[in-house]
Each structure stands twice: as C-alpha cells, then as structure tokens.
Amino acid sequence: MLKETFQAVKDASIDLAILDTETINRVLHAVADRAIAETDAILAANAKDLQRMDVTNPMYDRLKLTQERIEGIADDTRKVASLPSPLGKVLKQSTLPNGLELRRISVPFGVIGIVYEARPNVTFDVFALCLKAGSACILKGGKDADDSNRIIVSLIKSVLKEFSINENAITLLPATHEATAELLHANGYVDLVIPRGSKRLIDFVRQEASVPVIETGAGVCHAYFDKDGDTDKGSRIIHNAKTRRVSVCNALDCTLIHADRLADLPAICTPLKDSNVLIYADETAFSALSGHYPSDLLRLSTEESYGTEFQSYTMAIKTVSSADEAIRHIRRFGSGHSECIITENRATANKFLSQVDAACVYHNAPTSFTDGAQFGLGAEIGISTQKLHARGPMALEEITTYKWIIEGNGQVRPQ
Fold first, then answer.
1. How far apart are CA 111 and CA 312, in angstroms?
2. What backbone phi and psi angles, to 5 degrees, belong to 263?
C-alpha cells in the first residue's frame, strides 16, 4: 500500500507553498547543471533500458537519451527558471455593491500525478514545471525506462536535499500495474493525474481513475494540401512534420491532397524517399505516385490506414475534392491534437482554421511545432486534447488552479 508515500508527498506540497521564486529558480538551475555533470551516469542507466527494448519498437526513439538531448533538457529546465512565476496572479477582481472586495488568484494544484511510458525526458520536464508552479509530483513511469527514471529522480532529490527542501516533492513509484492502480485512486492525496503515452494508456487512465484527470491524447495529425497550395512549402512542411521525430505525438500521420493537385504529389513526396517513408495511398494518389516513388515503399491504403497514429516512418495519403471534404475527414479520423492546411488562399485557410476542431491548427506550418518549448512555454507537461481546464501544450499556467479571496468589513448577507 502506498498511502504513506502519498501522504508524504502531500506534506511536501504544503512545504513548497513557502518557497520563494528565487529559491525555486536556483534549484532548477542546479538541476540543469547536475544533469550536464552527470550525463555519463544518466546515459549508462539509459543504455540498460535500451538494451531491453527492440530497436524497431516505435518507443525506442522516445526512450533514447543522448548528450545532445540531455543538453536540450537542461536548457529547457533553465528556460522554466527564467519564466515568471505563475502563482499569486490576480486573475480577476471587483468590489461588490455591499463593499466586499473579491480577488481571484492563481494557486498551485498541490499534488500532480503523471503516468507515462518510455520517455525519461518527461521526468525532468514534470519536475521543473511542477516545482515552478508550486506543486509536488508523483511519477509513475513505465518499466521500459525504469533505470533512466530512477537515476534522474535520485539526481533531483540530491539537489533538493542540498537546498534543504523536502525530497518528497518528487516521488517515483514502482514500475508496476499495482502502483498505477493505487495512484489513480489516491483520493484525498492526489489533486490531478495526467497520462502521457499511448492511446491505450490514456484510455485506461480515463476509465479507471477516481481522481481528476486531464487527457493528453494520442496524436493523429493531418496535413491538407489545398488546390491553392504552394508545392515547395508543402513538400518542406510535410517532410518536416513526418520525419523530424516519428515517435512523437505531433508527427504527421496522414496527408490529404486536393484532387486538382495530384500532378504535384510526386514532387511533394520526393523528400520522403530519403527517409524511406512507407506510404499507404488511396487508388488515385497511388496512381499519381506510381513510377515516381519507390515501389517497395508504396502500397494501397485500407480503411485502417486512416485514423492510425503510426509512430514510425509510415504515412497515409487520401485524395479529397475540396477543403470541406478534408475537414470532414479530419473530423472523422483526427484525435483533436494538431492539424494543418497548406494553401495560399486566405479564405480557405480561415475556413479550415475556424472549422477544424483540434487543440492546435496550423496554416502553412508543420504540426511538429506543437510543443511547449516551441510555444515559448519553457517545457510542457503534456498536450491536452480535451476542452476542460486546459487545451494544447500544458505548461506553468495550465498546471495551476485558482481560489477566491474575499475581503470584508463586517458585512452580512440579508436573511
């Protein structure tokens, strides 16, 4: 039973409430410096995790840490430190006719639980954001990344100890299904749970949890190349969205192309050859690409080709007759994560931007930009695809809540 653990984290969250912003920022810089100093040890632990995973597994790239990636993680941690505190902001204030003064101010959630899979960078990101936002965090990582997560949490705890801060401000649970179940039912201890990972994981957390949940949904992302699209822009956008990092949730899964522009499809797809992207195309798109795209990388699509988050060098292509048909396809197969349109027609772009229901909708830019750091948020705790409380990249402001402060002078409510 983990009740004692949960209570210890809740106690730590109360201790965090008295930390000043300067101390928090110093801790974050110290964690970033320690990550760089301990790079070899982190990579050695990560290597143990990698040895247990098949290199063809789409999660392998997410699991893998490198010196460059650790440097990027440290930079993101420092960026979080550089951001203004999200706490104590007056969000609304007014004076009632009876003289009562009302203020709505931002405050920490308290204890935030994260259930995630093979992404050890999440361990750093969650701690940095939660600490800056005044909350303690309970981490439930997957067994695939357990060695990596344990050394990272140990590193962070050592920094907290140096600053005489309660080490339970970050706690890593055992990598077991039983620990997940206890976390999802830690009512009275955990204020919020955020799942990060596969659709199966997210669905499980949403269905099983009795504590509040914010979904960070799977990313089934589309790019629509309109009849008024620029071929060069389209080629670069689609290539970047598909191949930058195929295992992440903002990677492109399906390209929709207007039927009037099928002649340009070979040019649009040419850069994908170098990355050996496997394409599942409908019959008309297949015909347009035949003889122009490697035959061993070109296959006819099926119904299952659409609405799939591939997390690999695989992409579907669907021919549509209009922007309206593209929007209908996205409504049916999209996950509400990130969608884009490539067009030089402003009216068509505006229609797409207003009618596509997703957390992030792009015009002439790739879905690969859906990321807290890219949005100037320092880092992210996940991409919310729901509409309650937060939507899109969740960073400092999104992991705070608020309370009302009411100042009176003896007023009473009439009988």
1. 35
2. -65, -25
Residue 389 exposure: Cα atoms within 13 Å on the Cβ side: 18
The span from the CA of 58 to the CA of 411, in Å, is 62
Report d(CA 54, CA 352) in Å as an integer: 40
Q: What torsion, rounded to 10 degrees, do the Cα atoms 233, 235, 238, 244 define?
A: -100
CB 309 within 8 A of CB 385: no
Q: What would the pLDDT profile of 262-311 be if each residue is shown by its tens digit?
A: 999 999 999 999 999 999 999 999 999 999 999 999 999 999 999 999 98
Considering the chain, what percentage of its residues have pLDDT values greater than 90? 83
Exposure string of 323-346, with b = 16+ CB inside 10 Å and e = fewer, is bebbbebbeebbbbbbbbbbbeee
Can you state the percent helix, strand and coil of the chain, rounding each to 5?
45, 20, 35
Beta bridge partners of 254: 222, 316
**In this predicted model, what pLDDT tens digit does every residue of 30-62 receive, in sequence order?**
999 999 999 999 999 999 999 999 988 878 888
CB 239 within 8 A of CB 250: no
pLDDT over 80 at 199, yes or no: no
In what order do the strands lie in the sheet containing 400-407? 90-95, 101-108, 400-407
Terminal CA-CA length for the chain: 49
The answer to whether 278 and 245 are in contact (CB under 8 A) is no
CA gap 257, 240 in Å, rounded: 17
Q: Assign 313 a pLDDT band (cuts: 50, 70, 90).
A: very high
